[in-house]
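We store chain and fold; example below:
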Amino acid sequence: MSPRFALVAFVAVVWCSVPRDAKAQLAAEATATADAEATPAAEATPAAEDATAAAEKDEVLPFKLSLPTEDDVVAWRATGFRLELGMAYGWLEGFFGAPAGRLLGPTVRVGARVDPLWTLLGSFQYQQAFELGGISGLRYSGTLDPTLHIGDHLQLAFGVGFAGLVEVGNPRKDPSPSDFTNLADSYTYLSSRTPLPQCTGLGIVGLLRVGWQQILGPMSALTAFVELDGQHIACEQRIGRVDPDTARPFFRRQYWFNAGGVAGLNVGWR
């Protein structure tokens, strides 16, 4: 008899000798053990499904933009660099006989906001002056303008600096044409009631400006302004003769006082 057959026969004899009640108890214990082992796997299946659903839900969430971290008005109150570019149109009136003219040209302002109330700007204006029988040429100026901010929109500025005129040709009639042959030296006219036919000169200027600023965004703003200017110019015109000893050219000089105003629109950046 082979050993395998003997082992099978032994197991059969032992199983047949076990009482029926013991066999039922062993079967029940085996079934309970199998159920206990299967339960965690069954419970894990819903949890895995929930995790998968949550992941899919996160993937389909709508894209949201973050809100601004600083209000535009608050940003413009902060200190820092300022730049403004614009155009202005106005009128420059002459006093005590000085000629007048219309003004049209660009404005450039550059500076810095020093605190919530004050901005320090350097203003530069290059304007065409034109009027029949009046000023005809280029009018330019540069001023230093402390600017007071009254609230978030209203601005009040005052400035002082230099201004000049450059005329070409002879836009006016010469009051003393004999000066070109009779003058033996430079001559200064005490009155401007008969203005020189041509003026090239430099002088001082003062201004007062009121502006209204509309903030467009955190980096840009639009400013409408009205400005009053007053200037005193020392006009000169060469007469085409020179000093025979020093070769110094002879001039006719005259002082002009002009005042006027311009209105314009600027776009600013910070």
